[in-house]
Amino acid sequence: MKLQSRLSVSRSFRKALIATIALLSVLPSAYGQEPRAIDEPVEPDVTIGCLYPLTGPMGFFGRDADVALGMAVDQIEHLNQTLVNSGEPGPYPRLKVLLEDSKGKRHRSATLARQLVEEQGVDILCGVVYSSIALEISAYAERQKVLFIGGGHTSSRLTEVPVNPWYFMVNNDSRQSMRAGARYLKEIQTANPWTTLAYVGPDYDYGHQALDDLLEGLESLEVPFKLTDEYYPKLSEPDFSAYIEALLVSPPDIVVCNFFGDDFANFVRQAHQQGLLEVSQLANFDTGGGYSVMSALGDDMPPGVILSGHHHNNWPDTPVNREFVEEFYRRSGRYPNFMAQTSYSVVLAVAEAWRNAEVKDAEGVRQALEGLELSLPEDPQGFQSWIDPVSHQMMQVIAIGESLPNEDYPPATRMLGNWKIYMPELSR
Amino acid sequence: MKEPSVTQTKISLWRNSLLRRYLVLALLVAVLPLLVVTWLYDRFTGELLENLGEQKVQHSMNATRAALSGFLKARQFELETIVDLPDIERFVSGDPLSPELESTRALISFETDSFDIYGVLFFDAQWQLKTALPGVVSSGSPYWGEKQLSLAGLPRRNFADFVLIGPQAPLPGRSGWFLFAAPLPATSGETSSSGFVALHVRFASLTELLKSQARIDGFRPLLSTAEGHRFTVNGQPAMEQTPSWLSEEFAPGWSIEVIKHDPAVDLSQELRRPVFLLGVGASVVLVGGFFMTLILRLKRRFVPLIEGAEAVSRGDWNVHIPPDGNDEITLLARAFNRMGGRLKALIDSRLEVEKKAVLGEFSASIAHEVRNPLATIKVCVQSFPVDEDPRSKELITLVLEEIDRVNGVVENLLSFARPFDPERVWFTGGDLLRRLAALIEPLAVRENTNLFLSGDMDACLCVDENQIQQVLMNLALNSIQAMPEGGELRLDVQAFKQNTVITVSDTGSGMTPEALERATEPFYTTRTQGTGLGLSISKRLVQLNGGKLSINSEPGTGTRVSLIFNASKGTHG
Predict the structure, then answer these.
(1) Per the CB < 8 Å rule, is B202 touching A204?
(2) Would you call the peptide bond into A316 cis, given omega within 30 degrees of 0 as the criterion?
(3) Region B445-450: what's the mean pLDDT?
(4) Which residue, of A365, B112, B201, B323, has the fewest CB within 10 Å?
(5) Arithmetic mean of pLDDT, B156-167
């Protein structure tokens, strides 16, 4: 009965998404224009304040989030309109989403978070890209008893004990990604008996936490290996040559690099040019398979690199995911990076929790978020994402693949394939 | 004079080959300059690169030193700004999260919003950590989790009015760092500093500034401390024990060291010479292989020439060198073949002339010495008185017949030795053959031989009628004698273009190839009663009449003799 109930919810979401996209494809969209707000004729039920970099090196994350937030708000509106037309009261909240440019700066992010809550009265905060900034905003949200829906950062420290009751993460954290990566590495060890592993990660909380998570995963799976090197280059480092040279002194069998965005693209390009990829297998289990990396590298992405991402444009091959990608393309003229689906998930999670909340206030929504089930584009057939009520972490399927030639999503010329699918380790 | 033996004239590839000398010479020409260039390159390029590297290191040292000093000065300026912030000392003595300090926290955050700074730390006067404000790249302790930081064992030294603590080398899961600290202002009522504020700085951000020197081949920059610790460009502890080639201090106790002869560079230097020698060896093998192939090919071409010359020297004129290819050696082979052919024809002709001369002289002498006595004997015999005894008459007749027969032999000898010059006039072949047929028909009938006459009876030829008639008669008689059991004798005349060909063919016993080859030699005969001069005289008479005699024969099938005369009017006037 439980399974049937989940499936019926999934189908209703899918129908709603497809119907919304069909309707909106013929309507002009004003989302993304200044001011960045969805103006409602009536007072919104919930106001969400999002912090993403819209400019600077990580600006492409925020710009994708901008489009996806608009898609999510439009979908909720359409669902409500459909229900009103059928004579039923609208079960979803009237939403207002404010999107601020954090520029990826800690001080600016913290200041904007305070302004959104204390001056503009947002009910819920969302974002951010950097985990260290997320930690600070999470602490602020806890002090203010304001919900902070994390979407875009992945350090598992945010969902560690003691869990912040006001924080929820709606994308895979580094612990989930790295444990899936550990399972992947264990599986390939039979065919490719690797014994040495080196780690390269960005020098901030996420980079360090991800290695801890990977080592914990490998040890729990009793994978025999030796960690030969660990390096932490600076964020936005343009030149990885010295680190790659150090790796080449005694090349490990596996190099796990946890950089993301342009940093990871630079690392791949330089590692390829310096010959590291000829002697070591490169892997990135968290966000290296993001579309922004694929499009930035083009043919410079060698085939066979092991990658994953929080969302893939070509997996799962479900109507919901295809429609999500196509609608994003119709609105923006480009294919989405994983940040689009993550920010989309934030709005859908808030709307669904508000709908399920017995008391329509912050505490009611917070309680509804614990254990919330939600159908998202990245869910494969027969699976529904859900939020673990203990850790407040969204449980999702992780797909890890290899880079392969694929011209279906230009300007990228490589996409992931040869998938290995990993269900969340924590089951309901 | 002793002739050279075969072993002496045999060409060996290595002992006496001219090509071998060229091979050695070519190898020397190819390899010696290569060795010289390699040695010069090895000698001077290595030194040049080393000198260039040294100069580059020395030049870049100032820039690197300025970059590292500049990095610390930038931190120094940030620290000075933080120390001057209002209520800064309250981060040690009070609640750092109090709303009153909000603006100060914001200013600190703004001032240190860099990927090079993990955060800002506040210590009391005893260096106990009181407050940790995380920066954008903060990670774990002391900002998150256990919130502890131990400074035990870390070197401290003054840097202007500040304190430099560390560096702390990277630990498993953690990056290296150092603190850049300044005393906090004294609180009201206190005379001494209430504690310290420190920038928690990413150590690799400092060492990464050595990159410009790391790119100079043969040199490796390190950051060293007064305590003897060395760190690589990546901020990792260096295992390098080699003494520094160049060292310059950029902060108290902290120096830039440049190590010469990086192991990786040494390895390449060690490899350079064997690689060059390997290249020379490969060149020798390649050039040697090329010339060996060339020599073997040339030898294959020259050996038939040498063997042909040796065969000719042994008197074997029938040697023929196959003229393969289309080059100078092919032309030489063809010229050799032509030369051999002409030499053989010349020698054969000379032998024939000498043979004929000897035979002619011999025959004339014999004829002269025999003919006169024969005439006397014949006259004497004819003058014997004739009695009635039939036996005596028979004996005289036999003697006279034998004298005529011997005389005929002598006539033949004389014809062979001194044939008459032909008196050539135009005849038709039909005239000759019809006359011949009339003469031999009785004999043919008697010998049970069928005589056939055929061909173009009007075909003309310009010959001495008597001589050719003699030849044809001789051939016809030979044919009839070759058919003791009877057979067919054909006389044929044909006109082919400018030639008239008379053919005498039979169905007799034919000749073996050996007999056919020697058939026209004087005194060669296979018959017991023959003189062996018939075909020789026939051949000679035909030649004197400007014709050619050819014989085709197969044992058991028959013989076919052709007389070929040039019937062109222009030739004979």
Answers:
(1) no
(2) yes
(3) 89
(4) B323
(5) 91
Sheet containing strand B162-168, strands side by side: B129-134, B117-124, B195-202, B177-183, B162-168, B156-159
pLDDT at B42 over 90: no
Residues 212-231 of B with CB under 8 A from A: 214
Long-range contacts, stretch B287-296, CB < 8 angstroms, 24+ apart? B287/B26, B287/B27, B287/B30, B287/B31, B288/B23, B288/B27, B291/B19, B291/B22, B291/B23, B291/B26, B291/B27, B292/B23, B294/B19, B295/B13, B295/B17, B295/B19, B295/B20, B295/B23
Backbone angles phi, psi at A257, to 5 degrees: -115, 120
The pLDDT of residue B12 is above 60: no
- Percent of chain B at pLDDT above 90? 27
Task: State yes or no: pLDDT of A184 exceeds 70.
Answer: yes
Angle at which helix B263-313 crosses helix B18-40, to 10 degrees, equals: 170
Across the interface, of A111, A204, A239, the residue whose CB is closest to B106 is A111
Specify whether the CB–CB gap between A340 and A65 falls below 8 A. Answer: yes
Please judge whether B202 and A203 are an interchain contact, meaning their C-beta atoms are less than 8 angstroms apart.
yes
pLDDT at A37 over 60: no
Q: Which residue in B297, B293, B319 sits closest to B308, CA to CA?
A: B319
Interface of A with B in 236-295 (CB under 8 A): 236, 239, 241-243, 246
Give the best residue of B97, B175, B215 to mutate against chain A (max A CB count within 10 A): B175
Band the pLDDT of A270: cuts 50, 70, 90.
very high
pLDDT in tens, A114-141: 999 999 999 999 999 998 899 999 999 9
Burial A257-272 (b: 16+ CB within 10 A, else e): bbbbbbbbbbbbbbbb
Residues 97-126 of A with CB under 8 A from B: 104-108, 110-111
* Band of residue B502 on the pLDDT scale cut at 50, 70, 90: very high
Domains of chain A in sequence order? 2-171+314-397 (3.40.50.2300), 175-312+400-422 (3.40.50.2300)
The predicted structure's pLDDT at residue B7: 42
Question: Which amino acid type is present at position B559?
Answer: T
Which of B82, B141, B144 is the mutation pick for testing A, counting most A CBs within 10 A? B144
The whole-angstrom distance between B264's CA and the closest CA on chain A is: 9
User: How close A239 comes to chain B (CA, Å)?
Assistant: 10
Which residues neighbour B78 within 8 Å (Cβ) at sequence distance 6 or greater? B111, B112, B117, B199
Reported as type and span, the H/E element at residue B282 is: helix B263-313
- ipTM field: 0.85
Residues B441, B75: Cα–Cα separation, whole Å: 144
Give the Cα separation of B320 and B324 in Å (integer).
12
* pTM assigned to the model: 0.65
pLDDT digits (tens, 9 = 90+) for A67-95: 999 999 999 999 888 888 888 776 899 99
Q: Which residues contact B572 (CB under 8 A, 6 or more apart)?
A: B424, B426, B462, B566
- Give backbone dihedrals phi and psi of B28, rounded to 5 degrees, phi first: -60, -45
Pick the residue from chain A with its C-alpha nearest to B174.
A208
A205–B140 CB contact, under 8 Å = yes
**8 Å CB contact of A235 and B115:** yes
DSSP A121-159: --SEEEE-S-HHHHHHHHHHHHHHT-EEEE-S---GGGG
What does the block give as tokens for A173? 């954290």
Rounded CA separation A214/A202 (Å)? 15
| Interface with B, mutate which of A58, A107, A155 (most B CBs under 10 A) | A107
pLDDT of residue A50: 97
Q: Chain A contact for B136, CB < 8 A?
A: yes
Q: Quick check: B573 pLDDT over 60?
A: no
